[in-house]
Amino acid sequence: MYNSIFNQMQPLDGVSDIEYEIGLNLREQSSLVNFQVWYLRDKDWEGYLENGLELSQLRLRVHELGNLGLPPNMIIPVNEILKEKAFLTYIDEHHLEFQMDAITSSQYLVEALGTISGFVFLLFILMFASEILIFEARHKSVLKGIPLSFMSKVHSKVMVSFICISLFLLVGFGLGGLFAAWQSSPGDFAAPVVIYQGGEFIAISTLKFYLLVMIGFFLVTVFLLYLTVLLNIVFKNAYATIMFGLGVFFIPDIFSSVGLHVSWLHTIKLIDIHAILLGNSTVQYSFSQIDYTYALIAIFIATLIIISVIYGINKKNYLEKFKQKEPSSQS
């Protein structure tokens, strides 16, 4: 890459002070990269870390100077530099060894969580709970003969579904991790994963990342289950519930495909908790202040709003039935 940059740059004679500093900076970066290759071959991790951290500082300095004279395709994004710096700093501070295996169980779990987060998880919940209310109206169930209020039945159905889905997640990822460890390498759950939190990139252990994602999944599950209940009340049809839920998720993508970028619509993507943690979610391109904590709070508030709407609809239906019975009782 650096050879390509040097081939496209003008000689340093007669250039401005900023371009001259960038040129010297790039030469130093090229030297550090060559040394990093040597350190990797020699398995000199301390030297590799020192060079890597120094390289990150030099790359950030080039961005501070405005990348003057650099071709756009050769500019390394700031976020990528900050991620690498956080990754190397964590390894240095915790005195960890580099994991040389290409595939490990710890890496597998991180990738697997990303695969099901967002659309796949939404589709799974919608299909699992598409008849969470309307099933009882068509078939006999345990709760049908029990004298419970409507909201009590809703909460109990959500709780049962939540327990089932949580067990599926825990057992599935547990077995998946064991299979990956058996097929490749056990990995190191203390290895760093870079996340976006508090407006900056920080590194945490793989185990902590796994726990944060699972907590997020649990909250998203509750939110989606109550949303499915609401859609059941409105549409009274399983297929309509699934299609409407998926349609809402893809609204920002549809608008973007026709050239319309409506920032607030991307808040729908908050349910992709894995992307939010890594700082890769489309909603974070519009609102940089959104992080994992913000997403959990927003999802929790949205869940309370949906519960309130369900309660309001049920109350309205009850009052309408009560008013219809009043004239007949008076006559």
TrEMBL record:
The chain crosses the membrane at residues 116-137, 158-182, 209-231, 238-260, 292-313. Keywords: Membrane, Transmembrane, Transmembrane helix. This is ABC transporter permease. It comes from Alkalihalobacillus alcalophilus ATCC 27647 = CGMCC 1.3604.
